[in-house]
Amino acid sequence: MRIAPGGTIGILGGGQLGRMLAQAAGKLGYRTVIFTPEEDSPASQVADETIVAPYKREEALKAFADKVDVMTYEFENIPQQTVLFASKDKPVHPSLQALKTSQNRLDEKSYLNRIGVPTTPFAAVQLLDDLVGEAPLLGFPCVLKTQRGGYDGKGQVLIRERTDMGRAYAQMLGQSCIIEAFVEFTRELSIVCVRGQSGAIQFYPVVENEHRDHILFRTTAPALISERMEQRAQTIATKIAEGLDYIGVLTVELFETVDGGLLVNETAPRVHNSGHWTIEGARTSQFENHIRAICGLPLGPTTQTHRAVMTNLIGDDIEQVADWQAQPSTFVHLYGKAEARPGRKMGHVTQVFPLDD
Ligand code: AMP
């Protein structure tokens, strides 16, 4: 369904991704309404309107759906009931199915393997006995993760040896988990792609990601990888997007293994931190392309125009903002968050360079 400029886009979630989506929507001539439980959220500061209510409050969701022509979400831990309820009135992209798949690590990895996309070997863990049975088969070290609710390294623990199993299991407080073989990766990569309502799909170049304390610290675009690996990443992203009949921006986080293979770590049914560089470094940003896709417009070119390095400003890093602002060819984005807590993403900086530099 095509939503013409002048229409209204509803965004579930009020964080920085919602903020940058609302900015892109405004540029294309759309109005935006944010739905978030948070007062003065980063997204609501730049949107036309905000409804502040808990995600499960049905009358507020109904009022939200009444105001908009199409809906999207900016983080994957939105309750499924929220999207299901809202989608009775108006279209939601990406679909509920895409959201469900990414919300549960066991469902996600099972789906990936079913469609022939490789992941590290894994097994479901409900009871300590499951862990004690499966972990030695996967080998040590291995990683125990909650099935739900994890992001930025939350809800996961490394098991170095047999004797760590009891303590690791206890840390998960009885939540359903998966145990994964540890990947000896050489690099962490990601690919951001966008699929439109016609089924057309376009890719941004594969980028390299460095994490600190499990949080993305820096993205370098493009990653220096072979043409073959670039194509392999595109094939993986296409399989995932087509299998879900996906509409919007989809991100696939990858491990490059020591033997030159690619494994999927996880997928995100949304714009992604590793795609922020596209605002200044590509012909069309990931945010604009997501808006174009959900509104049924033609997709914009994803061609890279500049080599780019994106650095997150996390917690106290915000104090260095004046230094960044003094640098040439450097674009500073701040998210309007009042309090700089440790681990909190306060903004990001993108440095651009000529492509052939
Ligand atoms: P996740 O929350 O699954 O995205 O994991 C956060 C980070 O933990 C990843 O970006 C990796 O750096 C690391 N990690 C997660 N799973 C594994 C694994 N199976 N082997 C090695 N490192 C991992």
What is the domain total for the residues?
3
Would you identify the regions where 5 or more consecutive residues have pLDDT less than 50?
Answer: none
Reported for the largest beta sheet, the result is: 9 strands, antiparallel
**Helical residue percent band:** 25-40%
Bound molecules: adenosine monophosphate
Q: Which value, in Å, is the CA radius of gyration?
A: 20 Å
What is the number of beta strands? Answer: 17
- Identify the CATH architecture of the largest domain: 2-Layer Sandwich
Beta content: 25-35%
Output the CATH homologous superfamily of the largest domain.
ATP-grasp fold, B domain
Cα end-to-end separation:
42 Å
CATH fold-level label of the largest domain = D-amino Acid Aminotransferase, Chain A, domain 1
Shape, principal axes of CA atoms? globular
CATH class placement of the largest domain: Alpha Beta
Q: Note the run of SSEs as H and E.
A: EHEEHEHHHEHEEHEEEEEHEEHHEHEE
pLDDT average, as an integer? 96
Helical/strand content category? alpha+beta
* Helix segment tally: 11
Quick overview of this protein structure:
The chain is of the alpha+beta class. It contains 11 helices and 17 strands. It has helices at residues 16-27, 58-67, 80-86, 96-103, 105-114, 128-138, 165-171, 227-243, 278-281, 286-294, 321-325; strands spanning 8-12, 31-36, 49-52, 70-73, 122-125, 142-146, 156-159, 177-181, 185-195, 201-203, 207-212, 215-221, 248-257, 262-268, 307-314, 330-334, 345-353.
